[in-house]
Design brief:
This protein folds into 2 domains: 3-195, Rossmann fold (3-Layer(aba) Sandwich); 229-425, 3-Layer(aba) Sandwich (Rossmann fold). It has 429 residues and is an alpha/beta fold. It contains 17 helices and 14 strands. It starts with a strand and ends with a strand. Strands 3-2-1-4-5-6-7-8 form an 8-stranded mixed β-sheet, with helices on both faces. Strands 11-10-9-12-13-14 form a 6-stranded parallel β-sheet. Helix 14 (353-359) links the parallel strand 10 (344-348) and strand 11. The protein has helices at residues 11-22, 34-41, 52-61, 71-74, 98-107, 127-139, 158-163, 175-185, 197-228, 232-240, 261-274, 280-304, 330-340, 353-359, 369-373, 393-399, 414-419; strands spanning 3-7, 26-30, 65-68, 80-83, 116-119, 145-148, 168-172, 192-195, 311-315, 344-348, 364-365, 378-381, 404-407, 423-425. The mean pLDDT is 96. The longest helix is centred in the middle third of the chain and has 32 residues, at 197-228. The chain binds nicotinamide-adenine-dinucleotide (NAD). The site of nicotinamide-adenine-dinucleotide (NAD) has 29 residues, from helix 1 and helix 5.
Length: 429
């Protein structure tokens, strides 16, 4: 059993805190957001994530998981202090490190000797040195160690991913600190890669940039497929059967979104530029992705003649299924474009309605997919939630003003929908 503090109770921090508590450790979760902390003290998960609520309740009841907003309460007893605060994109496209700096400065005065600070936030290469310097100059405590431990979990399967990682990456100056952190992960039985701070930080960015590249690559192939009469879904299937390529992240559609890929690709590109390199591929990846929502609106406009004066329904709003996260979701760019072009937008999402009320105040929010379809001139599939797979399509058609669907996630069979009388367009088919 180790004593652990986790700073930042977002998707990564709360998952880390809950899972480490479940592995038998004594964990304090800390967040500066007092409202969030109060919810957590009442054992209420502040966002939707499968299995999180159960894990939270179980470990709080067992007394292994506590929450506070007070650094003086959480840090002094901790042998390990995880930093999992947000690192959003700043106005230049680089990573904004204000939260990391603030957390490091707040941790410093309370840090016990020989504690290990473990950074889980996704940060530009060299940030480990910045954190070390902040802590060292604030405390004069030379006996702490810093380990970079990038997180690879995915929202929507965060608990599962944390408990069954493909690998654990640990970057450190010395082997001892890395092996102490490695011990925390030992029960998971995952391979552990120990390297330098800089290399660990780079591994995280390189992974996200590569996955984003796969998505933009298949979207570029989709654009070509449409011109030459090929079906990108089958192309991706054929590519995915090649073990050198792999089937994941080859879904053509509205593009990537969320709190990670957009900001991480951009931050890596900015880092590259600042170091004098020319990140041509990363720029192409971002350009293609930014164009996808526009392309989908174009398809709808072609089917309808115009979207001006039309009522358009969106199925899904979150950036991907099984999460309520709408940060950088393609739905936001889609709504903006549709409204700029004079359309009225209605929408439904199984989990993101609360965020939608904040992020999309001018959108009419509905109770379910059937209510969205009522009186619509066109529907766009935005998020591939399972509950949209088995919709009663004749019923949907019955309530729409015009039976037009643009399938931004290639969820449906074009032939089946056309046979039902829909005008249908997918992406790259
Ligand atoms: N969300 C993901 O899927 C994911 C996956 C891997 C890595 N990451 C990375 O992990 C980091 C955290 O991401 P997230 O999605 O969990 O963020 P989030 O925005 O959901 O949560 C961050 C939390 O940190 C808190 N916070 C900010 N400053 C603080 C401070 N000084 N002290 C204490 N708390 C503070 C905020 O109040 C918030 O609750 C980011 O760097 C992100 O890139 C995210």
């Amino acid at each position: 059993m180790s004593r652990i503090a986790v700073v930042g109770m977002g998707y990564v921090g709360l998952t880390t805190a809950s899972c480490l508590a479940d592995l038998g450790n004594d964990v304090f979760g800390l967040d500066v957001d007092v409202k969030k902390t109060r919810r957590l003290q009442d054992s209420k998960a502040p966002f939707y994530e499968p299995d999180l609520q159960e894990l939270l309740t179980r470990n709080a009841v067992a007394g292994r998981l506590r929450f506070t907003s007070n650094y003086a309460e959480a840090i002094p007893s901790a042998e390990f202090v995880f930093i999992a605060v947000g690192t959003p994109m700043d106005s230049t496209g680089a990573a904004d490190l204000d939260n990391v700096r603030a957390a490091s400065a707040a941790i410093a005065p309370h840090l016990r000797s020989h504690a290990v600070i473990v950074n889980k936030s996704t940060v530009p290469i060299g940030t480990g040195d910045i954190v070390s310097e902040i802590v060292r100059s604030a405390t004069g405590n030379p006996a702490f160690a810093l380990v970079s431990n990038p997180e690879f979990l995915r929202e929507g399967s965060a608990i599962l991913d944390f408990m069954h990682p493909d690998r654990v990456v640990l970057g450190a100056r010395g082997r001892e600190a890395a092996s102490r952190v490695g011990e925390l992960y030992a029960p998971l039985g995952a391979p552990v890669l120990v390297t330098t701070l800089q290399t660990a930080e780079m591994i995280k960015y390189a992974c996200n940039a590569f996955l984003a590249t796969k998505i933009s690559f298949i979207n570029e192939v989709a654009r070509l497929c449409e011109r030459v009469g090929a079906d990108v879904k089958v192309v991706a299937e054929g590519m995915g059967m090649d073990s050198r390529i792999g089937a994941s992240f080859l879904d053509a559609g509205l593009g990537y979104g969320g709190s990670c890929f957009p900001k991480d690709v951009s931050a890596l590109a900015r880092s590259a530029e600042q170091s004098g390199a020319q990140p041509q591929l990363l720029h192409a990846v971002m350009d293609i992705n930014n164009g996808q929502p526009q392309l989908v609106v174009e398809k709808l406009s072609n089917l309808l003649g115009t979207v001006r004066g039309c009522t358009i329904g969106l199925l899904g709003l979150s950036f991907k299924p099984n999460t309520d996260d709408m940060r950088e979701a393609p739905s936001i760019a889609l709504v903006r474009t549709l409204q700029e072009r004079g359309a009225l937008v209605r929408a439904y999402d199984p989990a993101a309605m609360e965020s939608a009320r904040v992020n999309l105040p001018d959108v009419v929010l509905c109770e379910d997919a059937y209510e969205v379809a009522e009186g619509c001139d066109g529907l766009i599939v935005v998020t591939e939630w399972n509950e949209f797979r088995q919709l009663n399509m004749p019923r949907i058609k019955g309530v729409m003003r015009r039976p037009v669907i643009v399938d931004g996630r290639n969820m449906y069979s074009p032939d089946e929908l056309r046979a039902l009388g829909f005008s249908y367009a997918g992406v790259g088919r």
